[in-house]
Amino acid sequence: MTSDFSYARIIGTGSYLPERRVSNQALAEQLAARGIDTSDEWIVERTGIHYRHFVDEGTSSSDLALQASRRAIEAAGLSPQDIDLIIVATSTPDMVFPSTACILQHKLGITNGCPAFDVQAVCSGFVYALTMANAMIGTGTAKRALVVGAEVFSHLLNFDDRTTCVLFGDGAGAVVLEASEEPGILASALHADGSHVGILCVPGNISGGQVQGLPLLTMDGQAVFKLAVGVLEKAARAVLDKAGLKDSDIDWLVPHQANIRIMQSTARKLKLPMEKVIVTVQDHGNTSAASIPLALDHGVRSGQIQTGQTVLLEGVGGGFTWGAVLLRM
Ligand code: UT7
Predict the structure, then answer these.
(1) Do 27 and 173 sit in the same domain of this protein?
(2) Which of 89, 182, 184, 282 could form a disulfide bond with 289, CB atoms 3.0-4.6 angstroms apart?
(3) 194 shares a domain with 151
């Protein structure tokens, strides 16, 4: 397949949060019953999180991805059969295999045989997936890509560890990317440093039908925090340089929604007022690969992000991975 257009542009966004919304106070009460001490004050002050959404039993990443994808496809004015590439960023796939993207393809009723695969880059997964979709559109491999971040992190949480279980939630976000005569995606920068595998991981596996190791999230929060604030500024500068733009050209920063203090630090370094930062962490906590498309969709549907504006997406997380995508809406 060849394409007449070498750029890719977002033509629709969508997101979905499971119905069960849990406040800090409600979570603190549940944890107190297990002898774990935390409070609404601590969570708000250290993270900016007020609520997270958790799935009910039996709901998987592909279910959340399905809702977000339908909304993105509808916003793009397309039908599912128009999609010719599906990439799902997730660290909480429905199964070991096949990919959540294949399961999503089936749930969407797409029967055109388009390629579908998952990307595993934890909280940077969405910027990785978007960069891959952009490259595949640029080479004519696809014309209309569905790029999704979907997670059920509640399945990985250790509710006896207050340093992590209050931080994460479930959700999904999606975009439809279409081949275009004009950018679209202006530049991207992706990075990884595997020497930091241990600071944020789920150190478990399945072998011979048995779980090996600990299949629960563990994190050295301070180490992640320090690395994140350093690399996010560098990634932003890299994509601005590649696109020949400066800090002041950014209309909106849509960062990974892990901690309001990391977002404030990044904004300060880029001399962006917080009015130019889309912040949704208060409503859903850290949803890993879903957090950037969730925030992007919020920015678009609230009327803040407008067509023609320049938007910087930034992700950071387990791996250690990080990356940025600069785009024109
Ligand atoms: O998505 C991937 C990216 N992930 C991130 O970006 C996460 C990055 N890290 C962070 O956001 C922060 O490091 C945390 C929010 C995880 C922690 O905030 P912090 O300001 O670095 O707190 P801390 O780890 O220094 O802990 C301060 C105190 C400790 O008590 P002591 O030792 O000072 O007595 C902790 O035991 O807070 C205590 N603490 C808690 N207290 C009440 C830790 N968790 C809790 C809790 N409730 N849930």
Answers:
(1) yes
(2) 89
(3) no
Same-domain pairing of 43 and 82:
yes
Residue 156, CB-side half-sphere exposure with 13 Å CA sphere: 29
Distance 319 CA to ligand 1 centre (A): 20
**pLDDT tens readout for residues 138-167:** 999 999 999 999 999 999 999 999 999 999
pLDDT tens digit string along 9-51?
A: 999 999 999 999 999 999 999 999 999 999 999 999 999 999 9
Task: Read off the pLDDT of residues 42-63 as tens digits, 9 standing for 90 and up.
Answer: 999 999 999 999 999 999 999 9
Q: What is the pTM of this model?
A: 0.97
User: Is 123 labeled as catalytic in the residue annotation?
Assistant: yes
Of 157, 180, 203, the last residue of a domain is: 180
Any catalytic annotation for residue 165?
no
Q: Reduce the secondary structure of 88-138 to three states and give it as a string.
A: EECCCCCCCCCCHHHHHHHHCCCCCCCCEEEECCHHHHHHHHHHHHHHHHH
Distance 298 CA to ligand 1 centre (A): 27
